[in-house]
Amino acid sequence: MAQQVHIVPHCHWDREWYFSCEESKYLLLNNMDEIFEMLETRDDYPCYILDGQTAILEDYFQYKPENKARFKSLVQQGKLRIGPWYTQTDAMVVGGESITRNLLYGHKDCKEFGQIMKIGYLPDSFGQSSQMPMILNGFGIHRSMFWRGTSERMGTNKTEFYHESADGSKVLCQLLPLGYAIGKYLPQEKEALALRCSKYMPVLDRGATSDHILVPNGHDQMPIQKNIFEVMMTLKEIYPEKHFFLSDYESVFEELEKKKDYATLKGEFLDGKYMRVHRSIYSSRADIKSLNTRIEYKLTNILEPLATIAHSLGFDYFDGAIERIWKDIMKNHAHDSIGCCCSDKVHKEIVSRFTLAEEKIDQMITFYKRKIVDAMSLDLSLDKLSAFNLLPYEKKGVIKGQFITRMKGFEIVDENKNPISFNVIHKEIVDAGLIDRQIVHYGNYDPFVKYEIEFIDTLPAMGYKTYFILESEKEYDVEYIEGNALDNEYYHIDIHENGTLKILDKVRNTTYDNVLLMEDGSDDGDSYDYSPLEKDWILTSENCKADVSIQKNVYSDIAKISLDMHISKDLEERINHQMTGMVHFDIQITLQKQSDSIDIRTTIHNQAKDHRVRMILPMNISSKTTLADNPFGTIERSIVDSAMEVWEKEKWSERPDSIYPMLSFVKMKEDNLSFITNSIREYEAIDENTLSITLFRSIGYLGKENLVRRPGRPSGIKMEIPDSQMIGTYTFDFALTCQSNETIAKTSKEYLTPVITYNKMPYNAMKLNIPKVKTPYQYSLLNIQNDGFILSALKLSENKEGYIVRGYNPTSHPIEVDIVSPYHKHNTNLNEEIIQSNVQMVSIVPNQVKTVFLSK
User: Which residues are catalytic?
Assistant: First the structure.
């Protein structure tokens, strides 16, 4: 038995959950006063852990700025432990760049006060990514502490072990085998305390590899335990052979690091044997999770690279505003918030933060495009259309843009006056007052016309190209023909009467049939877990009748599918095999020329409760595993979890169904049909030949007890959350493509980094003065020619002295990357600290992320 018992005072601070963040803030004000009093008046009370996140510091100082010096003094004395995170992030359903920025801004916040707790402390997140050790090492963190996701089948039954990422990065882990709250509200009365300890002390002793064990003394929003010294005296009476003392997490690791012979575990931690990891939480409130997906990619793939291009041309980089956006969305990345296992009131607040963040992103994108184009010469024409390629290599393909004009006839040319052949796919009248109110004010009521056009051209790497709209005699109207199939160089797509697709992959001469079949089944689960009725009644769209129209333009084919699917309106009808409910699908499929991805927008009108809707993707070749992306890499997962045969016998906390998260793509390893997402992020391989994508789940409770797939107590609390039934209209964007395991990541990145355009015209309701900066008609900031390199970030460095280029290698082989630019290159860690100066090539092994600092 371990003799040394570290009792660590802490709080676990869910900013929001079934309660609002405003409610928790007032508890924080109260609790901090008591923490201050204890730390300042008792020298024998060594420290207090503020949950490893700095967002609560913002919450506190919002109301108590006068205590900042007092707080800083305690941090510098080592009595208050803060950081390293900004929020207690989820590790499975948010992107690698989001996890990195969470640590980056957490570290930045801590620097104002002094010391940082260098532990990857995630005591309640629902599982651990296989890439977490690499991310933690990137910030000089070599220690990790968490609760959920492990079991002895991963390689050890001990609570101390190494966790190693695919690139060899490693952290020493202290597992919290019974969670972070076993020491909550410890009773002082001897009999009650002995009873409590008899339940967890044997578990701690059994898992320990040394003479030291850990008892966290805290809980959710728990105030400091003022009688802890009296409690420890009672503990010494109960266990005279043990030494109980107040401690901190660093001291625990200092003892553990005295030995090295720990088991090394690899891979992700998603076992729900001893603690719940909620493998199907990835589809709860699919609307909110889709918002996050879209915002993450818009921020990292569009805004930050565009702002970097603008800065390189002489404009300001609004780093403070971008940091604020990151912090706003990272408040939503806390495990309960992004898990969407909260009250309806809290979900509304989460949506509000995301909506405001996206508005900020959209407006900043428009602003930077405008500043760049406004600074161009007026020699050729005032009316311009600039196209921005934010990939680090040249991009040839269809460019889709809009411009507004009063010209009756026009032509489009490049800067060398070469005519551009284009096709008008949409036009509409725009009221002059919407363009510039001053036009109407002075009596000019002539309308404008907005044209949506497509054309093919090659755009420079990480840059832009400008086209000019010149007045001419030729007028244009929308031109297209109706067709019965979609077709380009890569695919031929037929649409069946029920709305499913038959896709011919021309490159491999392979056909996939019945793609996009919709499946509907019961969901008797809660916001944490999907769980069907014991005797489910599965319905599909196989016998539905769809309305289909196909518009064939010069540079793209567009299909519109409208489908009514009659289903059970609730669980009672499902049990009785009745169908008075309905889900209506409006699906738009776009296939552009020269594109190897099939873009799909699905709008769902849901009028039923307690059900799950999935999309079915049949394969041609059997596979034993799936391949999906995770933070800065890829991961293979078995189609069937071997624990499915024993989970009931071994009394697992939840059934280990093979329902998993992705970030941007998933495919069956042996087949080529792949799914790319800019919205939903949950999948399951139904069998070796069938992949399913969860579109949404409809449930009515935060937590429920005794689920078919999760026996026992409710997760969270039993609270009605009717908004999670998702009655209403929701839109999801994704794509299908046929790719190898080596190319799917690049194709996903291209889908998620669309060309964006800006139309400069003589009018604008919001006026700006003529800029001092002059910009060229065409520009490229940098060029990276390596198909295995996936750009993750391009941004201004935190020290504002250069640019950060970050990328990773999702392929199965090492790569050498050359970043061609006018800047010097230096390797840094994820915290942007230089570790190697003046490099030429950047070497990256599979599933490894590298960061490069570009300096002048």
Answer: 124
